[in-house]
Design goal:
Layout: E1 2-6, E2 20-25, E3 31-37, H1 46-56, E4 64-68, H2 74-86, E5 97-101, H3 104-110, E6 114-117, H4 119-128, H5 133-136, E7 137-138, E8 149-153, E9 161-165, H6 168-171, E10 180-184, H7 194-207, E11 213-215, H8 225-231, E12 235-236, E13 243-245
Parallel strand pairs: 4-5, 4-10, 5-9, 10-11
Antiparallel strand pairs: 1-2, 2-3, 6-8, 7-8, 11-13, 12-13
Length: 254
């Protein structure tokens, strides 16, 4: 495997800015995948999502949150901050968030004390935390610019997320079957072909049973993932783009 340098030029349907883009190619130079991420990525209405899950799981004592393709941790950290801001007890019933990625390098980075971000990330974090960026990160001495810099995480973010290396196509049966929020965003176009994508849709459908949600991203629309989910019986949540409720399979009801 060849790991190419960070490339800050966005492509395709990715956001117009990214705090991390890492391109990984095979021994023949063919693209395998990109680690492209930023905080509070704009393909999810985060505030409405928080309101929705608060209502949906208000009578549930424990909610399982699993985030695949977590990259450097920007997305699970966004979720963690959202839960801490939304719930008086810091959203303990949603924790720990289980964050997984196929790339060992970014997982090791995610476990560390520092993370790449730029001023777009700072602005997004302040937006969703009522200006409390400093509660979660130590600002760089020189401030933020368009170029990413390493920023230290505050102690409050050092717990609440469990990181691991895993491939969702092989790991899906480790996901809890009930009361689960499954983030599987912005990697579907990198799967081998439509057959593998369809198989993953079926595996998710067969795995998730009661009171679950599935969240994908805008980039996944390149591979018609939203169409595959709809055809498999998943229902999109009203007013929440990219959030789906899995079908309840009658043969799984006990």
């Amino acid at each position: 495997m060849r790991i190419y340098p960070i490339n800050m030029q966005p492509t395709g349907r990715q956001p117009s800015f990214t705090s991390l883009t890492r391109t990984v190619r095979d021994e023949h130079g063919r693209l395998k995948y990109r680690n492209t991420t930023n905080f509070f990525r704009n393909d999810l209405d985060w505030q409405n999502f928080a309101d929705f899950v608060a209502e949906k799981y208000k009578m549930v004592n424990k909610v399982n949150v699993v985030c695949y393709a977590c990259s450097d941790g920007s997305e699970p950290l966004s979720l963690l901050m959202l839960f801490k801001e939304k719930f008086p007890n810091g959203g303990k019933k949603f924790l720990p968030i289980v964050a997984k990625d196929i790339d060992k390098t970014v997982i090791e980075s995610a476990k560390g004390d520092f993370i790449n971000m730029d001023y777009h990330d700072e602005r997004a974090i302040n937006n969703y935390t009522a200006g409390r960026f400093r509660n979660y990160f130590v600002p760089p001495v020189r401030g933020f610019d368009v170029d990413p810099v390493l920023v230290k995480k505050q102690a409050i973010l050092k717990e609440g997320i469990s990181y691991a290396t895993a491939d969702i196509t092989k790991d899906i049966n480790s996901v809890p079957v009930n009361n689960t929020i499954l983030f599987c965003k912005n990697f579907w176009p990198y799967l081998e072909d439509n057959k593998q994508r369809q198989q993953l849709v079926e595996n998710i459908k067969n795995r998730l049973q009661r009171n679950c949600l599935v969240v994908i991203g805008n980039f996944d629309r390149v591979a018609d993932t939203h169409v595959m989910l709809s055809k498999a019986g998943f229902r999109r949540v009203m007013n929440l783009t990219n959030v789906y409720v899995p079908p309840l399979l009658t043969h799984l009801i006990r």
